[in-house]
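Attaching the record inline, Q. Sequence:
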Amino acid sequence: MTRKLASVQQIVAIRSIPNADAIEVATVLGWECVIAKKDGFKIGDRVVYIEIDSILPEKPEYEFLRDRKFRVRTIRLRGQVSQGLVLPIGVLPKRKNGYREDEDVTEIMGVVKYDPQALIEERLAAEQAAREKNRIKKFLSHYSWFRRLFGRQRGGFPKFIHKTDEDRIQLFPHICKEQAQTPFQVTEKLDGQSGTWFLVRHKGLFGDKFSFGVCSRKLLLNRPDNSSYWEIAKKYNMEKVLKNIIGNYSFVAIQGEICGPGIQSNKYGLQERDMWAFNLVYPDGMRENITAKNILEQEGIRFVPNVADEFYLCPTIEQMLKYSNGKAQLNVKDTLREGVVIRNYQKGISFKVVSPEFLLKYAE
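Structure, as predicted:
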């Protein structure tokens, strides 16, 4: 699912807040947002919903967000957690045929994503571009055999591997009811930088050859550099690890979260950068948690902390958000966990539940 920072949605419920005369809570999709009573919103109204981690343009109508640098984030008002911003449909330019429900209006609203890791990606891309001015390489890159062995276009993430990004539970407002009887596996969501390390097999007349690649969240890093992604590749001798576990498959990839000094304020208080894997990917799909953990730990690579091997969803999203709260298992500094990742591999269901307490404590 493509994330819509701003979209046309419907208010599905409104409830009061104890001891609050001027505000109340509106439910949009699975999100709960505090709204002002004076705005006169009603159940069934079409509105523009702005997700958390969005940055609105510096316009007079959004001046109330200046202290937050125009960023929409999780806040608490009168004891009520509010995630997102609800605006009247009239903030959109008039259009002859109007706007359909669930329509993405991010560009129309001038909304951009708050994404610190994207800044790192941009810096890596610029550094990589400066290194790749080699004319010979540019000439050879026109040949498919060279691209297969030594990389793809600058910045291109391998098409055969999914990028590391989970949708939040609030985007699936009916999932607790629809999947009430489905058993899930639960792991802790770590707060760091996600990376991908992969190996591709190339069959030939004189034996197989292999291409090793390192990626940030969205960028293929074609050659060793000083980034945390290559630091982890060297620390774990990742190319050798992948050769050990590729078997007869055409490719294998490990995806994981890098945590430590210089990354997300190092909330876990680690002394050095380290990585915890959360995906082990083969051409026929991802290995489920227990299998992936067993394979990778034999190679000296840890899997993300386990929370539950068999878990059934709570009856409501509100209860799921409470479930996501807790202490991090990498609890060097008594840190709150960022949340949990919930999966059922047989049904192909996967989503994250981000802890409101974590978001509030760290102003995320």
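The radius of gyration is 23 Å. The first helix runs from residue 106 to 109.

More tomorrow.
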